[in-house]
Specification:
alpha+beta; elongated; disordered C terminus; FNDC_type_III_4/5; glycoprotein; 203 residues; Immunoglobulin-like; secreted; 24% strand; 8 strands
């Protein structure tokens, strides 16, 4: 039983290593700031990747951080809360269905001084911020569409009320016109009645 369990363990271990996705390639650091940077990478085709794991470490070894994201197809990640003028090393791993890949090559980068690069709108080139801006634009567009639809409905209701008033006025004038002939008809009856009476009188 012990030999079989060892064999099963070895087979599972072999299966785990065989099913591990390949390590990310072309790892690069963009949008360097004093306190942030964006890491991007590529994944070789043919493997199902469900997330990523990033290890971020200062070169002096004082601080290490791990960022792990699953259920994502993203190929970039923003590193926040970095220290200015500090050297860092990052490595990226792909997360597959059955485990993580080997770590990518170590990529060094250095953050900037706060005075070196202070953009008017911070992180304007950053994909995350661009996404937020797009979301804001979408929200504004949706609001405009809602307002336009409401105005259109108000115009339709106003037009309907106006048409209804015109129809109502026409109906009331038609009813008045119908009443008039009936009153005209009553006058001949009086005349005829008068004639009858005059005839009776003569008789």
């Amino acid at each position: 039983g012990f030999k079989y369990s060892k064999l099963i363990e070895l087979l599972l271990l072999l299966l785990f290593f065989l099913d591990r996705p390949p390590a990310p390639v072309n790892v690069s650091v963009m949008h360097l700031r004093a306190d942030s940077a964006t890491v991007s990478w590529e994944v070789p085709e043919g493997d199902i990747i469900i997330g990523f794991s990033i290890s971020q470490q200062r070169m002096d070894g004082k601080m290490q951080r791990f960022i792990r994201e699953v259920n994502t197809t993203s190929r970039s990640c923003v590193l926040w809360d970095l220290e200015e003028e500090t050297n860092y090393i990052i490595q990226v791993q792909s997360i597959g269905l059955y485990g993580e890949s080997q770590a990518s090559k170590r990529v060094p980068f250095r953050t900037l001084k706060k005075t070196d690069h202070e953009p008017l709108s911070p992180l304007t080139d950053d994909p995350t911020v661009q996404g937020l801006d797009k979301a804001r634009h979408l929200q504004t567009g949706e609001m405009i569409i809602i307002v336009v639809v409401l105005l259109m409905w108000a115009a339709v209701i106003a037009l309907f009320c106006r048409q209804y008033d015109i129809i109502k006025d026409n109906d009331s004038s038609n009813s008045k016109e119908k009443v008039k002939p009936s009153s005209e008809r009553t006058t001949p009856e009086h005349h005829s009645g008068g004639l009858l009476r005059s005839k009776v009188g003569h008789l």
